[in-house]
Amino acid sequence: MTNHYKNILVAVDGSKEAEYAFRKSLDVAYQHPGSKLNIVNIIDTHFLGPLDKELAEEVKEQTEQTLNRYKARAAAFRVENVNIIIEYGSPKIMIPKEIAELVKPDLIICGATGRTPVERYLMGSVSQSIVRSAKCDVLVIRTPA
């Protein structure tokens, strides 16, 4: 029996790995007609330091532009039921716990790595956190060799 994914969440952060995860999410959504694709980006407040409202607003505007480009690409791929989500906080906490609780996905897709090796060592991997905490299937995408 194959899974029919009706509600897909893909985490993007602007990295090359996230681009591959987004492409895979299009494939999965296209193969499951009528499914909803939720594209999420968590603006990591750890990197903003003390939250400067101007800087935060600028980052949010850039993120909205990026996610709207993803949404347009999804429409061009004939995936039309697309929702974009932008929040502030820690991606490794927000995605598997708060966003997943809100969206109730049956599949989460994310890149294997998105941060630098030093950041992963100090802060932990977002994908590891998603795999450990998610209550649904998780597909972790690696970039081609």
Automatic annotation (TrEMBL):
Broad class of where this protein is predominantly found: cytoplasm
Start and end residues of each UspA domain: 5-142
Key words of the record: Coiled coil, Cytoplasm
Pfam family, one: Usp
Superkingdom of source: Bacteria
Localization in the cell: Cytoplasm
Positions in coiled-coil regions: 53-80
Record GO cellular component, one term: cytoplasm
Family: Belongs to the universal stress protein A family.
Identification of the protein by name: Universal stress protein
Organism for this UniProt entry: Oceanobacillus zhaokaii
